[in-house]
Amino acid sequence: MTRPTTLHVHSINHHLAPVEIRERVHLDSTQTVALIKELCGNKKDSGCVSVLPISTCNRTEIYVEVIAGHDADEIVGAALVALGLDPALFLGEYTVSLDGHDATEHLYRVASGLDSMMIGEPQISGQLKDAYRLAREHHDLGPGLLRAFHGAFRAGKRVRSETQISHGAVSIAYAAVELARKFFDNLSLQKATLVGAGETGALAARHFLQHNIGELTIVNRSPEKAMELARVLTAEKEAGMGSTARQDGPNVSKEFDLTNAQITVHPWEDLVGALANADVILSTTGATEPIITVAMAEQAVSERKGKPLFMLDIAVPRDIQPAVGDIGGVFLFGLDDLKQIIAGNVESRRSQIPAAMRINAEEMDALQEWLDDVDLRPTVAEFRSYLENLKDKQVGHVRKRESEAVAEAVERSLQQFIKKVVGRSVSALKSSPSRAERERDLEALHRIFGNGKED
Fold first, then answer.
1. Choosing from 16, 19, 57, 82, which is the catalytic residue?
2. Most CB atoms closer than 10 Å: which of 26, 31, 303, 379?
3. Alpha-carbon distance 32 to 281, whole Å?
4. Does one domain contain both 182 and 113?
5. Is there a single domain that holds both residue 361 and residue 314?
């Protein structure tokens, strides 16, 4: 008979653990596989049915399905010690440990973006699926863990498609690109210049490329750093992938067409020329003094012969002199403008939480219904198999003596009989007054019909 199991999760995440702790517990793919093998790779009865670790910048979580009666903390702790990892760090003061329904609810919140640092971010969905695939490559997931993750993926997909929780820019880089998209009808016909090659600039560049900017020019004080960013972006372009830029751009496909995009590097000494050649300027160097002055902007505008210049300054301190915004034909936006957009989008996302929670509750109800009956299925299947074998034998006898039409009629009648008998049996088992009595009834059914064959 199937032994009941329970889902557990040990979570170290951004709600409780500071970044230095999250860095220390981060598991790379090699450590993840080693943990899976330590917990589930041998045949000893540790009580662990299956395990699925996930490790991102904001969370490290270990989901385990254990046989009822076994201590999940002891099982995971022993595996961590065997791998040379500190169980006090993974299971200590920064860890939230949840069992059963609470563990499942946590998983569904994670999958739907409700537990993310930025509510509704879609990146966690892909990270969960990557962790799921890695775990399945190295062992067979238990029925409870498998079903829970399938339900979580379904809940996350429904939340993203049936609510607005993932809509609207919630990072400075993405908000800047979204604002540019509202200014221009078609970014594929425009040229953008990125001033600065740091992390924020690189993220903005990827967003521009995902939205098919016609040309992207990088200008940086260090030409080597500019060239390196151009090389990385070109490699991503040729691979046709841009998952990194999807941090808060849920409406952009993971695969996109960059065949028309050009990525070039322009010398810092001719920054004015780069400004004049661009329709969109995004500056993010963080220099101590403005690097784009009124005089530079006026020269660039004069060379553009009336074409508007859209400028985004997301640097701290500011890269562009504020008076540049007073020049005719220049549209200058800064961090305060973008933060107002982001604040409105964050509030909009928060308003979608109740709808997302209702979807999660529906999917969890479906999972619970399946879990409530999981112990019935093997024994009921044996009972049904016994009756099916008996039916086949009796129909065979009829075929030897009667016409095919009579045999088919007998088979249909017996099939209905089996349906009613099995249905009545399942209903009786579900309505058992106690778990102990239900287990006794299942044991009796298994003992009588366990081999599924008619003697």
1. 57
2. 379
3. 43
4. no
5. no
In a domain, 116, yes or no: yes
3-state secondary structure of 174: helix
Structural domain range at position 103: 5-165+352-372
Distance in angstroms (rounded) separating the CA atoms of residues 116 and 168: 16
Residues 183 and 299 in one domain: yes
**Is residue 131 a contact partner of residue 31, using CB atoms and an 8 Å limit?**
no
Distance CA 155, CA 158 (A): 5
57 is catalytic: yes
Token pair recorded at residue 260: 């028309």
Cα separation, 386 vs 235, whole angstroms: 60
8-state DSSP, 160 = H
Per DSSP, which regions of 14-117 are E strands?
48-55, 59-67, 96-99
Q: How many domains does the chain have?
A: 3
Residue 426: what residue type? V
Whether residues 149 and 188 fall in one domain: no
pLDDT in tens, the chain (455 residues): 456 789 999 999 989 999 889 989 999 999 999 999 999 876 557 799 999 999 988 899 999 999 988 999 999 999 999 999 999 999 999 999 999 999 999 999 999 999 988 888 887 898 999 999 999 999 999 988 999 999 999 999 999 999 999 887 677 888 888 899 889 989 999 999 999 998 888 989 998 998 899 999 999 999 999 999 999 998 887 776 444 444 444 333 333 343 456 899 999 999 999 999 999 999 999 788 999 999 999 999 999 988 999 999 999 889 999 999 999 999 999 988 888 888 888 888 999 999 999 999 999 998 887 776 666 667 677 777 888 888 888 999 899 989 999 999 999 999 899 888 888 877 877 777 776 777 777 778 777 776 655 55
Q: Are residues 30 and 132 in the same domain?
A: yes
